[in-house]
Amino acid sequence: MGAARSNGGRVAVLTAAFWPEQTGSGQTVTELAEYLAREGFAVRVATSMPWYPQWEIWPEYRGALWRTDTHRGMTIYRAWHLIRPKPSSFTRIMHEVSLSFFSIANMVRALRGADVAIVALPLLSYTFTSALVAALMGVKQILVVKDIMPDAPVELGMMRNPVMIAVSRWMARCTYALASEIHTLGEGMRRRIASVAGPAKEIRIVPDTIDGAELAPVPFASNEFRRRFVAPGVFSVLHAGNMGKKQDLDLIVRAADRLRGDAGVHFYVFGDGAARAAFLERCAALALTNVSHFPLQERPMLRHMLSGADVVLVSQLPEVVDIVVPSKLVTALGAGAMVVAACDAASETARLVTESGGGLVIPPSDEAALVDAIGRIRRGEVDVASHRARARAFALRTFDRDAVYGPLAREIRSRYCRTDAPQLVSGS
C-alpha cells in the first residue's frame, strides 16, 4: 500500500493477549494501543487468537492458522495456538511454544517499518520470541512487564522443574537485556526486575489506567447489577475477572461456607479462567446456595457491578507480594467500589488500598477476617461512603488515562519516531 504523511510514528505491539479480551493484560495493553492510535500513531499488532480467561480459543476465531482484524484504526495479525481449558504444565508450555512459532511471520509483518516495538509480558516464551525478532530487525523495544516471569509461576508452585526454571530465568534475562527501556506496574515489581536486569537498565513505573467517565459510579436506585442479580435486602459480595490460582478463589468458598446460614449475604462471581471448574466443583460439593457464578458481562455493565456491589473482593494468595498488580483493583477504585483486599500487607495491592483510603485490607486466605469485614460493613461500623469517594478520587488522580499515557505518547514520539519520514498506514 502507498505511504501517507503523518507525524504520529509507527508502533508495533507484540502481545499474547489483546482485544476483544476484556480482562487482564489483554484489556490493559489494548487500552495503551488504542490511546496511541488516537494520538496519531500507526499501530500494528501481532497477537493470538482470543483465548483469555476461558483458556480456549473463542468459537468465532477457530478454524484458521492466521487471521487479520482491524479495530479502531489498528491492524491486528493473529496466529493459532494450542490451548486447553484445564491447563497442565505441559499444555501451558505447548500453548506458549505454538503461539510463538506460528506468530513469527506476524511479528515480522507488524515490525516491518516500525519505529518502536511495545513488547508485553506475561507469556515469557512469546515475549522472548518477540524481543528476539525485533532485535534482529533492528527495532528498538519498550518492554511492558505485567507479571514478573518466571517468578510468578515458580512462587505459586506452578513451575517446579529445575531445568524449566533455569531456562525461563535465562529467557527473562535476555528479554530484559534486549529492551531499550522497561515499564512495569509498581515499585516492588521494579525492584525485582532491577535485580535481574541490573542497575543500568532504565525501568519505569507506568501503572494501568482508567477512563473516569467509563467507570462513573451508578447509584443503587438505577443500578443494573442490583436490578438483575441482587434480591432486595441482600448484601452482595462481588468477585469479577480472571479465575486463576493467584486469585485464591477458595477463600470465597470457605467464607460462604461459614455464612451458609445467613440468607442476607450472597457471593457473586463473574468470570472465567483455569480455576473456574475446580471452584464450581467445590461449591457444588459443599452445596453452597449463597454463591452464584456468571460469565463475564459486557464492558458497559462493569461500572454497574463495581459500584453496585456492597463489597468488591480483591483476593490474592499469600505468595503474591510483588510479582503482579491486579488490574481489577485499579478498575474497582476507579468505579468507587467498596474494596476489601485479602492480600499480604507488604504487597502492592495492600499499598494501593491503604494509600487511597478506598477500602479495607485483611490477611490473605483468612476467611474469618473476610466474614468479620463483611459483618462490620453490614452493621454500619465502616464509613462506606467515605471509602468509595476516596477510592474514586485517588484513581482519578493516579490512574487517569490521559494523565498517564499522554506524556508517554509524547515521549515515544520524540524519542523513537522518525516523524519526518513517510508514514505507512496501519494496514500496510
Largest sheet: 8 strands, mixed
Biggest sheet, strands in spatial order? Answer: 4-5-3-2-6-7-8-9
How would you describe the shape? globular
Query: What is the CATH C-level name of the largest domain?
Result: Alpha Beta
List low-pLDDT spans: 1-6, 421-426
Characterization of the model:
- The protein is of the alpha/beta class and 428 residues long.
- The protein has 2 domains: 3-209 and 401-424, Rossmann fold, CATH 3.40.50.2000; 220-398, Rossmann fold, CATH 3.40.50.2000.
- Helix content is 41%, strand content 19%.
- The chain has 15 helices and 16 strands.
- It has helices spanning 24-38, 89-111, 124-136, 151-155, 162-178, 187-197, 224-229, 250-258, 276-285, 302-308, 327-334, 348-356, 367-378, 384-398, 401-416, and strands spanning 3-4, 10-14, 42-48, 66-71, 74-79, 116-121, 140-145, 181-184, 203-205, 235-242, 265-272, 291-294, 311-315, 339-342, 359-362, 423-424.
- The protein has an 8-stranded mixed beta sheet, sandwiched between helices. Strands 12-11-10-13-14-15 form a 6-stranded parallel beta sheet, sandwiched between helices. A two-stranded antiparallel ribbon has the order 1-16.
- A hairpin with a 2-residue loop joins β4 and β5.
- α3 packs parallel to α5 (162-178) and α8 (250-258) packs across α13 (367-378).
- The radius of gyration is 22 Å and the shape is globular.
- The N and C termini lie close together (5 Å).
Summarize the structure.
With 428 residues, the chain is α/β, with parallel strands linked by helices.
